[in-house]
Design a protein that fits this description.
Blueprint: H1 5-10, H2 14-47, H3 57-108, E1 111-116, E2 119-123, H4 136-171, H5 186-198, H6 206-219, H7 226-235, H8 238-253, H9 259-279, H10 291-300, H11 316-324, H12 331-347, H13 378-387, H14 390-398, H15 421-425, H16 445-452, H17 454-468, H18 485-500, H19 524-533, H20 535-542, H21 563-573, H22 577-600, H23 609-637, H24 643-649, H25 654-667, H26 679-696, H27 701-705, H28 711-728, H29 737-767
Antiparallel strand pairs: 1-2
Length: 768
């Protein structure tokens, strides 16, 4: 029976705490009793001269009794340890649940209903007179809350099952024979069960696989690393780990798999990957030795088999890559593997793909997720791993490369024939592969194009993590992460690279235009996110603002972007709908921050406020002009996107509004109205303005032919600048209406002029 919502919410775990105290006393008493028996009765028995029946019966009885006292102590200690850990975990989970229900749900106006089966449903109760209309943010918050509560309940259920199993094994169900399985912690029992299941391999039922995934999910990422480390050690080492994962992934991805089985191995890929990242982190209290990394590199180029008489065997890196795709890995473990794989790929891009199954029932390979390839090319896998491992990715792209031998050991001279991995991956002749088992991929042009983009897209994810300090798929809107010298320097290199060579990331679907699609166009979405993160640096570059600018602050170390490169970079990246939406969102949020700082902040400038407002909106409007023109290019010149694509891409960019506003709060937390409790509604206002401007930044064919490629975008840039002033004036009641109107006029004028500047720059760049 599942652990129910009302159980966890209402149970008084103080009683369990009292039981733990009682068992601790029992353990101490039995320890004393066992010691007395051993040092007293047993010691005297061993020294006595027994004869006759006493030599066998009485002496044996004394020995058996002494052992039973020791076994009773062992059993009691095991029960105590399990109950103590259970009390700690249940108490923490109950606290999390009460916070979610009594604070978060209440603040959101949501009701939580127990629907049985260890699950709840969250909903907004109907209130008389209420329209029942909810914003997308409210609906998303409700869904997040419901998922969080259900995860808490599932975790409690897993703890409950583990405790029941451990107590049963400790007791052994034999009242006349104490001392069975012994545990020093609940963790020991959970590891034992996980390994019992893993040893069954593909013979695990779907239910058992689900149980293993739950054990890994809720214990594999614990901060001390104990469960994860003991689990991988228990599997038998690096090679046994690869054999187990290979067997399970192939078992769940063949043509005869069920959806339940496929879902199970997808979950296993994620939970094992997260646990491996935890177990190989040298900073955790419990972790695997560094030799695991060495062994994985040695096994990377060796064939791995898991069945007798197996013909087709994958290489170690093909299998390991599936696990590396999930988890935030320490650079000491991941980077040597990523460097080794990259260098092997450079030497022979097809060395691993020649080993992939041909005409088999393997649909996904060793990447059951199916995202960005089957996993047969480990290069895509390690790039995805770097994309979720920010520290490792930053070091991978900013520190000098190290050369590796075929077996994964460092070459004696340690030198490579390229300057950096960014340079290597962005060479026009770098060969990306088609990592798929689809039998007709080469006959289908669309499938081929998609598959050729998976490697560059994974590269984009890695660069995004390296430059932002966050996993690429993080939606975390908490405190922004300051830009370090290394990250900012990498951004400068990226902008220089693609600003000088925009053809590398160009996408052209129009056969009438004599420009080939670049090999790296698939990473533009990530380049858009990088631009959004470094919006202050890009705004500085538009009108060559100095590095000490107070009006256009960077978040941490400035990137010092070259203005010409930044303009051409934006013009090419902005042709991608996702990148355009991210950049537009960040630009308007940053401009709103800057305008607010002019109107509400402290300034020693002798320039009039309306002059400073003009200065504040100009760079953002220039960026908007570049994007308007590049959007028109993508739609009408290259046929690479549509207005619908751009509008749909804007829907999920709220995180950039919050991040950019958060960066502004860090600069001056006392500012009004951006800081404090009103951040939420300011964020919503900015996002609403952004959505309107993106939806209306369109140009039909007739307007384009008439030379009005960006007229609508210019109008929306003007409206956006005026809206930024209006928001900043909300709580500034000492500014009279005439002054307020003058500030809005200044913003409109500057935005119109600068938008035209940006569009013209981009248009001239296109013609060069």
């Amino acid at each position: 029976m599942s652990f129910q919502y009302t159980d966890l919410l209402q149970i008084d775990f103080g009683r369990l705490g009292s039981a733990v105290t009682d068992w601790k006393k029992t353990v101490d008493d039995l320890k004393t009793l066992a010691a007395n028996a051993r040092d007293g009765m047993q010691a005297k028995s061993d020294q006595a001269r027994w004869a006759g029946l006493n030599a066998t019966v009485t002496r044996g009885f004394v020995t058996k009794t002494t052992k039973e006292f020791a076994d009773l102590h062992t059993e009691a200690n095991s029960i105590y340890r399990v109950l103590e850990d259970a009390h700690t975990e249940f108490t923490a989970l109950q606290k999390q649940l009460k916070t979610a229900v009594e604070i978060d749900a209440k603040n959101l106006g949501v009701r939580v209903d127990d629907i049985g089966g260890g699950k709840v449903r969250c909903f907004f109760p109907h209130i008389r007179g209420d329209t029942d209309e909810r914003t997308q943010d409210q609906l998303d918050a409700k869904a997040e809350l419901e998922g969080r509560i259900n995860r808490i309940l599932a975790h409690a259920d897993e703890v409950d099952s583990s405790v029941a199993r451990a107590l049963g094994k400790s007791h052994g169900n034999d009242p006349h024979n104490a001392g069975h399985s012994s545990y020093e912690s609940l963790n020991d029992a959970q590891v034992e069960r996980a390994l019992e299941l893993a040893k069954k391999g593909k013979e695990m039922s779907d239910q058992e696989l689900g149980e293993l995934n739950r054990l890994l999910r809720y214990n594999g990422t614990e901060k001390d690393g104990e469960f994860a480390t003991e689990f991988y050690q228990g599997l038998g080492g690096p090679e046994k780990t690869l054999q187990f994962y290979a067997e399970m992934s192939i078992n769940g991805t063949g043509t005869d798999h069920t959806q339940t089985r496929l879902d199970g191995v997808k979950d296993l890929q994620r939970t094992m990957g997260m646990a491996l990242a935890n177990a190989t982190d040298p900073d955790t209290r419990h972790h695997l030795p560094a030799s695991w990394g060495t062994d994985f590199r040695r096994l990377g180029t060796q064939e791995i088999g898991w069945e007798k008489g197996q013909w087709s065997k994958p290489y170690g890196y093909q299998v390991l890559g599936g696990l590396l795709r999930y988890g935030n890995y320490d650079p000491q473990f991941l980077n040597p593997i990523a460097e080794h794989v990259t260098q092997l790929h450079k030497e022979d891009p097809w060395r691993f793909l020649t080993n992939k199954p041909a005409g088999s029932d393997d649909l996904y390979g060793f990447n059951p997720s199916g995202k960005l390839g089957t996993g047969n090319d480990p290069l895509n896998s390690v790039l995805e791993a770097l994309g979720r491992s920010p520290e490792a990715s930053e070091k991978f792209f900013t520190q000098p490369p190290t050369a590796y031998n075929e077996d994964g050991t460092v070459k004696s001279d340690g030198k490579v024939d390229f300057d950096s991995y960014l340079d290597l991956f962005t060479k026009e002749d770098f060969e990306w592969t088609i990592d798929t088992n689809d039998t007709n991929v080469l006959a289908d042009e669309d499938k081929t194009k998609r598959a050729m983009g998976w490697g560059p897209e994974a590269l984009g994810h890695a660069l995004e993590a390296a430059t932002t300090g966050r996993p690429y798929d993080s939606d975390d809107t908490g405190d922004a992460i300051r830009h370090t010298e290394a990250r900012a320097g990498l951004v400068r290199e990226i902008v220089d690279k693609f600003g000088e060579n925009p053809e590398l990331i160009r996408r052209n679907e129009n056969d009438d235009v004599d420009m080939e699609t670049g090999p790296l166009y698939a990473l533009r979405g990530s380049l858009g996110d990088i631009t959004a993160e470094y919006m202050g640096d890009f705004q500085r570059a538009m009108y060559e603002e100095g590095g000490s600018s107070d009006m256009f602050p960077t978040f941490g170390v400035g990137a010092g972007l070259d203005p010409g490169h930044a303009q051409r970079f934006l013009g090419e990246v902005g042709q991608d709908p996702d990148a355009y939406a991210a950049i537009t969102t960040a630009q308007q949020a940053y401009t709103a921050n800057t305008v607010n700082d002019v109107i509400n902040g402290d300034s020693q400038s002798t320039t009039s406020m309306d002059g400073r407002v003009r200065d504040a909106v100009a760079p953002g409007a220039a960026i908007a002009g570049i994007l308007s023109d590049s959007r028109a290019d993508a739609i009408y010149e290259y046929h690479a996107a549509s207005d619908k694509d751009y509008n749909e891409a804007a829907a999920d960019k709220q995180k950039w509004v919050d991040r950019i506003l958060g960066m502004g709060i860090d600069k001056a937390a006392e500012r009004v109205p951006i800081a404090g409790d009103v951040l939420g509604w300011v964020s919503e206002d900015v996002q609403d303005s952004i959505m309107k401007s993106i939806e209306k930044d369109t140009t039909n064919e007739a307007e384009r032919e008439a030379g009005g490629e960006y007229s609508n975008g210019r109008s929306q840039s003007i409206r956006s600048a005026e809206e930024a002033v209006r928001q900043a004036l909300v709580n500034h009641h000492d500014i009279n209406p005439d002054t307020a109107e003058a500030l809005k006029r200044a913003a409109r004028t500057a935005a119109g002029i600068s938008h035209s500047d940006g569009a013209q720059w981009n248009s001239e760049s296109d013609s060069n």
